[in-house]
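Exercise 7. Given the encoded structure of a 381-residue chain, write a plausible sequence.
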């Protein structure tokens, strides 16, 4: 028959158990999540992705890979079966002719595909045994929204798609279509996205040498309109220019994914916009409590400029620099406020470890008191 429990032994066991639990919890909250294996720069496809080198993707990935952020792609749909996109594309919607159901099939023409955009944003490089194509935010999710009918985008469907994406919780919306005339539906959808804390990005337009007319929704206030640059950092002559241009990004000779497990190389401000959308995803993953205005300010404040002035109608604020946006600690009124609001999330692991340590100390004191009580003679003795 077992005798009475020794409080010293009981306390010791409890202490050992608590210590083990504390170590387990501490390890779980301080170990960074593993990211995708990054192919060396001289691998089959990675060597052709000049934009990743120009944007210092390897450095940016040390801080963020877009974890937990959903980026909506408004266009022709996205081929979710592509080896470099498998697992990153969630079910979306087809709001034009409903032929693809949930947008996870791409019915675009060879030169215009939502799959191109998705690869730039979230390509995982998993194809060819890990030597496939990488996007700038390889751990972001892509929400495809198809807005095409008869091989042409529909303005009403695009407006509905922007609303749908914002309602579904997309933190970044990449509008890969454009229209030559303004639309009240589009303008209203952009406002709805802003109210839903969704950052909207669009190519500024590819008509810089053919009239330079404004395109929509890029020309609307609140949309980050992006011009395209080449390997040398010069603005592509076909890029639209004007006061609506906010940033520049690589957009010439861009290698990306294409439907039917294929790849494509092309030039467009739509490709440039995708790099900015991915950059926004990286920042939003690192600072989940920052709002749209704070994210845009950080991207524009840290953009790379070859020379003054700080802004011009061809470059906007300069070429987006996601690595600097993620590491820059320059203070401003908006940025300072955002740091205050994000401090709890940024220091969460440290607070948990501190709490576990405090609990462990309390248990140690309790154990000591129990042991002390066991070995100290009582008045009855």
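Solution.
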């Amino acid at each position: 028959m077992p005798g009475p429990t020794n409080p010293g032994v009981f306390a010791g066991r409890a202490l050992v158990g608590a210590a083990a639990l504390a170590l387990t919890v501490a390890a779980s909250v301080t170990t960074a999540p593993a990211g995708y294996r990054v192919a060396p720069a001289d691998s089959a496809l990675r060597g052709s992705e000049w934009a990743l080198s120009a944007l210092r993707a390897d450095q940016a990935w040390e801080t963020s890979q877009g974890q937990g952020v959903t980026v909506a792609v408004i266009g022709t749909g996205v081929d979710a079966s592509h080896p470099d996109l498998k697992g990153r594309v969630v079910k979306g919607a087809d709001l034009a002719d409903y032929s693809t159901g949930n947008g996870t099939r791409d019915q675009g023409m060879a030169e215009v595909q939502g799959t191109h955009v998705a690869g730039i944003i979230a390509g995982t490089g998993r194809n060819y045994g890990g030597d496939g194509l990488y996007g700038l935010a390889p751990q972001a999710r892509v929400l495809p929204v198809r807005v095409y009918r008869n091989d042409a985008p529909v303005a009403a469907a695009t407006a509905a798609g922007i609303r749908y994406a914002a309602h579904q919780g997309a933190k970044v919306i990449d509008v890969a279509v454009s229209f030559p005339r303004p639309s009240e539906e589009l303008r209203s959808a952009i406002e709805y996205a802003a109210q839903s804390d969704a950052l909207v990005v669009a190519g500024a337009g590819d008509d810089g040498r053919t009239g330079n007319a404004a395109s929509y929704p890029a020309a609307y206030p609140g949309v980050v309109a992006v011009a395209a640059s080449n390997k040398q950092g010069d603005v592509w002559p076909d890029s639209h220019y004007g006061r609506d241009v906010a940033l520049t990004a690589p957009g010439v000779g861009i290698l990306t994914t294409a439907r039917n497990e294929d790849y494509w190389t092309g030039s467009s401000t739509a490709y440039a916009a995708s790099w900015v959308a991915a950059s926004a995803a990286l920042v939003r993953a690192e600072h989940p409590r920052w709002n749209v205005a704070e994210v845009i300010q950080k991207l524009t404040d840290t953009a790379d400029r070859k020379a003054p002035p700080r802004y011009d109608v061809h470059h906007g604020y300069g070429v987006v620099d996601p690595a600097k946006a993620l590491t820059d600690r320059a203070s401003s009124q908006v940025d300072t406020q955002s740091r205050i609001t994000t401090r709890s999330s940024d220091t969460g692991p440290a607070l948990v470890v501190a709490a576990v340590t405090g609990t462990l100390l309390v248990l140690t004191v309790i154990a000591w008191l129990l042991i002390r009580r066991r070995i100290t003679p009582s008045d009855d003795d």
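Remark. The CA atoms of residues 72 and 165 lie 6 Å apart. Students should compare their own answers with the one above.
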